[in-house]
Amino acid sequence: MNPILKVEGLSKRFLLHERGAQIPSCEGVNLEVHPGRLTALIGPTGSGKSSVLKCVYRTYLPSAGRMIYRDGNGHPVDLALASEHTILEFRRRDIAFVTQFLHCLPRKSALDVVASPLYARGVSGAGGRDCAAELLDQLLVPERLWSLPPATFSGGEKQRVNLARGLIVRPRLLLLDEPTASLDPVTSGSVVKLIKRMKSEGVSMLAVFHHPELVTRLADNVVELASPDINGKTHSETAL
Length: 240
Fold this sequence. Notes:
Helices cover 33% and strands 26% of the residues. It is built from seven helices and ten strands. The strands form two sheets. A six-stranded mixed β-sheet has the order 6-7-8-3-9-10, sandwiched between helices.
């Protein structure tokens, strides 16, 4: 089966204008993500794991390399070269990104924050909130908080709202950046169950995990990144 995403020679470097120097983040990364499987990125701090995810989501524009994504019709698209319009369409219907931080309008309720990806797809307000309530319940967010703005929540509660928003649309490709970093063991267990269920439904995943045991429990493939050396070179290795 063809991968839904194939990354070849991906590099990201940041330019320090005042010094005229380039700082390498990730360099020469190669990986594949397949339907219904999870590819995990591991490596030391500074090896560029989060940068890889942000390049795929096009928060960062890659410095080099290709990121071949197969859309719903099987057509290959290089995300590194795709137009902003194409990227926005993929984000709306195909690709979701769960980061460690929640960004949302300050007065919007948790239900509406979680349901917002469904609203963008034409789901009604009532239907979206029903789906959001079900997911918030699964992630152990107390019902008394559902009508409140997440800006008032604790760090772990915000993270659960963020997870619910990323998981609600069942994307074709899900990017996860340490999704359980702020969660207690019980809630982390609920997240693991959701991820396993989404894998069984065919969702493709590229993830960075805070805890090594989650890699063991969830990953089908592992890509290890090394920190760029003084010449900006890294190596990546995929293991089954």
